[in-house]
Amino acid sequence: MAKAATKVRFYRFKNRLKEKCAGLGTGSASIPEELLAEAEAELSKMSEDYPDWVSSLIVKLQEQHGRCVDTPDKRKEHFLEIHHMSHDMKGQGGTFGYPLISAFADSLYSTTQSGSLYTDNDVELIKSHIDSMRAVIRGRVSGDGGDIGKQLTEGLNKAIEKHS
Amino acid sequence: MAAYDFDRVTVLLAEDSQFIRSLLINSLKILGVGRVIPVEDGSQAIEFLKLVKTDPMKAGVQQVDVIISNWDMSPVDGMMFLRWVRRHKESPDRFVPFIMVTGYTEPHRVVQAREMGLTEMLAKPFTISNIGERLSLIIERPRQFVHNNSYFGPDRRRQDLPHKGVEQRVLTDKSEGVEIVRG
Lengths: 164, 183
Known about the structure:
The complex is a heterodimer. Chain A is mainly alpha-helical.
């Protein structure tokens, strides 16, 4: 009788990565806490430069917003650029201690996703997001930002309500 | 508990954001990773892996042990890169652990990455602990690879949960058409 055709193949290999990192023993190993703490400290150091870096991105967002105003017929491509940039910013703010940047960028990401009608209202809404992010960085509003953070979030939510 | 020694480990890191790239390089170095090869997008990563396969001396490494890649990059994004690693005949190691770093957390995106053969996902914004957890996971809990007519990648079933009702998983190791490859 002919051998049945192979429907599925399972590959079960030796754990070579573990051998490389923890030797041939069977016990489990871990990343030393002090190294994680050292990496955290390095991250904190880098976070000091984050506001300057993100400011340059906010300037680029402003430029794109200006183009949305000046060349309405090309709004689709400007929105796409803003969409990409907000996606990046959404993914970074929280890591460097600025979750409000992540939250506002996330909202901007939703505002500019495909399906937008590229109206003047949408363009105003982009501006509200940029203004909110600028306020976060200008005031160095890190963490949840306490009362100021709450005010900024409420301010943006009101703008969203007004322009949606 | 013993500590990992990552000194002989090589990580290929594809990330287009210079700021995040620096953060990841520094973090991996502090954790003791011997070689971190940074590239700026999927196409550079693919070129490097081709070199590892054809001329490891020139590449400076015999093998890449872990890939960490951003998803949203241009011109070749992380998903296209993952597809190449898992499926292309020029890929030097179709089984290499692949960690996707991404701000895309919508369920359909997660499913898309899983179906392409992702090993682990690291959601942005991430913390240092998140990086450590993903590294530990790929070392301590590697999954068998599955190859059938519609999928190639790490076993998507991470747990063996008790199942109520009729057992519908018809294939076992001994079933006809099942082949086990050990190595």
